[in-house]
Amino acid sequence: MGCAIVWLRRDLRLADQPAISAAIERGYLPIPVYIHAPAEEGAWRPGAASGAWLDRSLRALDHDLRELGSRLTVRKGASLVCLRALIAESAAEAVFWNRLYEPATRARDSAIKQALRSDGVLVESFNAAQLCEPWTVQTGQGTPYKVFTPFWRNASAHLEMLAPPTAAPPTLPTPPLLASLPIDALKLRSPLGWDGEFWAHWTPGEAGARARLDRFIDEAVDRYHDDRNRPDLAGTSGLSAHLHFGEISPRQCVHALREIEFSPSQRAHADHFVRELGWREFSTHLLYHFPHTAEADLNPKFGSFGWAEPDPDLLSAWQQGRTGVPIVDAGMRELWQSGWMHNRVRMIVASLLTKNLRYHWRHGAAWFWDTLVDADLANNTQGWQWSAGTGADAAPYFRIFNPVTQGERFDPDGVYVRRWVPELSALPNAIIHSPWSDPTTLARLAPAYPRRPIVDLRESREAALAAYSASREKV
DNA sequence: TTTTGAGTTGTTCGA
DNA sequence: GTCGAACAACTCAAA
User: Fold this and answer.
1) Which of A39, A81, A128, A268 is the most buried (most CB within 10 A)?
2) What phi and psi values does residue A98 have, to the nearest 5 degrees?
3) What are the sequence ranges of the domains in chain A?
4) C-alpha count within 13 angstroms, C-beta hemisphere, residue A176
5) Which nucleotide is nearest, taking the CA of residue A394 and each C1'?
6) CA atoms of A328 and A347, how far apart (whole Å)
7) pLDDT in tens, A182-226
8) Smallest Cα–C1' distance to nucleotide B6: which residue has it?
9) CA–C1' nearest nucleotide, residue A395
């Protein structure tokens, strides 16, 4: 029986695992391999929070493989060098992997595919991460979509024919014993322990992902449309990091929802969740077709926009949740402490940074990249560009979030603010989202909290409107 | 080629 | 407190 290397990257699961399935179906003995090569992702090598998650996800994967009789072989160094060494050591005849879609990983993978094929090795790649691959969805003109609604109309048609996901194999053959690094040797875990709080919220790995999906289906999906915007409730799926690392696939999510008998109104809520998966697809496709957008504005009109030079003190106040705007500080502290932030709040903190402070979105994207456990280049890029108004959306330039209004609407009782900003916990609801409006109560009940926001919300809104308006006239 | 309808997520003001 | 209008025009995608 010949061996096949299964090169695992961000597909850290055993169910619905096309690369492993392909190896088995073609009669090979699969050798599951992880190669640590962060430098190959260029400027967007995984950040610290992402590394902390990966550490645990790899351990979970190795554990799961061992339960089935296999094991994870771990290496570090240049991917091609490691793959060639592994092929020589195991006499493998084939290499299989599941595709990645970022500019740097695509370039690397296609170079490796070419090199190994010229070595005479069978190489094949598969789709494990997308409902639709980027080259399969295009407009009547053959161009990529830049507007979500027509994109999703088109992509939804593909969904009708989505094949059901495969189950994990009941057992796996034991691969040849090859030299393997302990996962500790990858130094993904911080010795400082800043991620200690994360794991009260998250369980990396395939079992944790499945449990999260099951809980979402049991408890929240039938109210998703209403509750997904409420950071004070557990209204979202919480699957973003699991999806990023491929511990679960969007196909598995869609299929799990199809299996359930919902009432028509519940079905509408479930469909809304699938539509959010559609946004994940859309982001991947946009970055695939417009690879420069991880660094540059998708909308070229913003090339000459008057962004402000960041004041290091203000940027740091934003990062650390000391802006004096409760909903913003709650979000930034949720991010720091748990490695994640509710999507509604991501938009609010992004609006403050890009509109009120008028800092370029890349400053926010860089911070999120390092601190989010779900940091994903396509989603992070498109999310920030959407917020800044430079992305794929006919966003009216005057759409500037008022963090007080947003807080009152989506965290009506201040539960979310009090959870993450405990020094505000004694404030009455009436001023929980705008404590500066009652300075004496603020001073008495929350003496440690900033007296006023780092930026005047009304003035900065006016200034941002003027700047966006001026930039339109200039072009 | 030209035309036409439409576009995730908002805020403020005044009736 | 609730509601509609104004904010202004542009690009996209399909007919």
Assistant:
1) A128
2) -105, 145
3) 3-128, 129-164+206-289, 300-474
4) 16
5) B7
6) 10
7) 999 999 998 899 999 999 999 999 999 999 999 999 999 999 999
8) A149
9) B7
